[in-house]
Design brief:
This protein has helices spanning 8-27, 82-85, and strands at residues 35-36, 39-43, 47-53, 62-67, 70-76, 97-103, 114-118, 121-127. By secondary structure, the chain is an alpha+beta fold.
Length: 167
C-alpha cells in the first residue's frame, strides 16, 4: 500500500489543469498569460550585457526603461489579424507579452544604454558608472610669514616715595 501525505494544493492544481484542457478543447487554443522574460546577464569592467530571446517581436514592440538602477524590459506583441492568415486549428506558440525587471548592483550611466536586435535576440548594453579613482594629493610647505618680534611695553616706574605718605 502506497502512503502519501495529504496536500490541499493538489486538488487546486488538478482543477487548474482540467480548466486549461477544457478551454483548449473548446476554443482550440491555449490562453497564455504575461510571461517572465528569460535572459542572460554578463558583466565586464565597463558594462553589463543583458541578452533576451524575443522571437517574433519587432524592435517597436519592445520597451526598455531604467529607473533607480532597475532596468525594465517589456515586450507587447499586437494581436494578429486572423482574416489575413486564416484561423488557427491549434495554437500553442501564442505569446502576447513578456516582461522582466533587472536590479543592477551598481550605479549605471542611464543616458548611454543601447539596445539592438539580432535574429530574435535582444541585447542591451548598460554601461557602469565608474567609481572615483584614488588620487594622490601632493603636500607642499605652507608659506609662513617671518615671525615679528613684539616689543614688550615699557613699564614706567613711579619714583619711590613720590605720592607716599611718610609717617
Amino acid at each position: 500500500m502506497l502512503v502519501s501525505r495529504f496536500n490541499p494544493w493538489n486538488d487546486l492544481l488538478s482543477l487548474q489543469g482540467q480548466t486549461e484542457r477544457f478551454f483548449n478543447e473548446a476554443f482550440g487554443q491555449t490562453v497564455v498569460p504575461v510571461q517572465a522574460l528569460p535572459l542572460d546577464i554578463r558583466q565586464t569592467q565597463d558594462a553589463f550585457y543583458i541578452e533576451a530571446s524575443v522571437p517574433g517581436f519587432r524592435p517597436e514592440d519592445v520597451e526598455i526603461t531604467v529607473d533607480e538602477n532597475v532596468l525594465m524590459i517589456r515586450g507587447i506583441r499586437p494581436p494578429e489579424d486572423e482574416s489575413v492568415r486564416g484561423s488557427y486549428v491549434q495554437r500553442e506558440r501564442q505569446l502576447s507579452s513578456v516582461h522582466r525587471h533587472v536590479h543592477l548592483p551598481v550605479r549605471v550611466k542611464a543616458e548611454e544604454i543601447t539596445a539592438s536586435f539580432d535574429n530574435g535576440i535582444l541585447t542591451v548594453m548598460v554601461p557602469r558608472e565608474q567609481k572615483a579613482q584614488p588620487q594622490r594629493i601632493s603636500v607642499t610647505m605652507a608659506r609662513v610669514a617671518e615671525p615679528k618680534v613684539i616689543e614688550e611695553p615699557k613699564v614706567i616706574e613711579a619714583p619711590v616715595g613720590a605720592g607716599s605718605v611718610a609717617g
